[in-house]
């Protein structure tokens, strides 16, 4: 638990992505760059290239493309001379799929991003299945997936998602405070939580 004198960090800085941003973001390396900066914090193009197993030139180019639309920014407190440090401009990128119904290119981009999220979920689950025997019983019980079937109108589904997201944001804030406090739990590890809702497949309705 955080000390009483630690001021909680505000809710994650969230941006409602626009059409130009979504078209720029829909690229495998750019998605990974934004994700790495959000997880690892500020970094140089060289450090990111090593982390993501790519070359510095491509990394620098794609960082500049992301910067042009405000998805990454230079870290003003770091860097000297020609060395540039970059940081994610936001903790959370949000959108509604219908935001792009009038722009076929942006709609195709957001569909690619959603597909990439599913691929990431599959890769994450497969890595967990392959390595779960190396983790403690507490972590093996903590990790994993579950599902539930609902019959619900779209407005209530939006309310459900918003309420669950508020819970996730609260835990995010509390974890950030604990990470910066002397009482941070030494057993804490980075965890990625996915939130998804899809129609029940045909035949089970």
CATH homologous superfamily descriptor: Winged helix-like DNA-binding domain superfamily/Winged helix DNA-binding domain
CATH overall fold name: Arc Repressor Mutant, subunit A
Helix- and strand-based class? mainly alpha
Strand proportion, as a percent range, falls in 5-15%
CATH class: Mainly Alpha
Poorly predicted runs are 1-11
Rg measurement, Å: 19 Å
Whole-Å distance between the termini?
Answer: 44 Å
* H/E topology pattern: EHHEHHEEEHHH
CATH architecture: Orthogonal Bundle
Number of domains: 1
Strand arrangement within the widest β-sheet reads 2-4-3
**Major beta-sheet overview:** 3 strands, antiparallel
Q: State mean pLDDT (0 to 100 scale).
A: 87
Tell the overall outline.
globular
Instruction: Count helical runs.
Output: 7
- How many E strands? 5
Protein name: Transcriptional regulator
Organism: Micromonospora arborensis
GO molecular function, one term: DNA-binding transcription factor activity
Pfam family, one: HTH_20
Summarize the structure.
The chain is mainly alpha-helical. It has helices spanning 19-25, 28-40, 45-52, 56-68, 104-131, 137-142, 154-179; strands at residues 14-16, 43-44, 72-74, 85-88, 92-94.
């Amino acid at each position: 638990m955080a000390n009483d004198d630690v001021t909680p960090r505000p809710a994650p800085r969230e941006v409602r992505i626009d059409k130009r941003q979504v078209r720029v973001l829909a690229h495998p390396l750019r998605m990974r760059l934004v994700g790495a900066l959000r997880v690892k914090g500020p970094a140089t193009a060289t450090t990111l290239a090593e982390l993501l197993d790519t070359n510095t030139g491509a990394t620098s180019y794609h960082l500049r493309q992301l910067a042009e639309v405000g998805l990454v920014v230079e870290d003003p407190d770091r860097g000297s001379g020609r060395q540039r440090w970059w940081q994610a401009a936001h903790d959370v990128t949000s959108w509604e799929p219908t935001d792009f119904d009038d722009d076929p290119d942006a709609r195709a981009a957001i569909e690619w991003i959603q597909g990439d999220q599913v691929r990431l979920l599959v890769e994450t689950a497969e890595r967990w299945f392959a390595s779960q025997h190396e983790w403690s019983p507490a972590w093996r019980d903590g990790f994993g997936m579950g599902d539930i079937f609902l019959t619900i109108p779209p407005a209530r589904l939006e309310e459900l998602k918003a309420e669950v997201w508020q819970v996730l944001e609260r835990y995010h804030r509390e974890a950030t405070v604990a990470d910066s406090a002397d009482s941070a739990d030494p057993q804490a590890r980075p965890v990625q939580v996915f939130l998804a809702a899809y129609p029940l497949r045909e035949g089970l309705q």
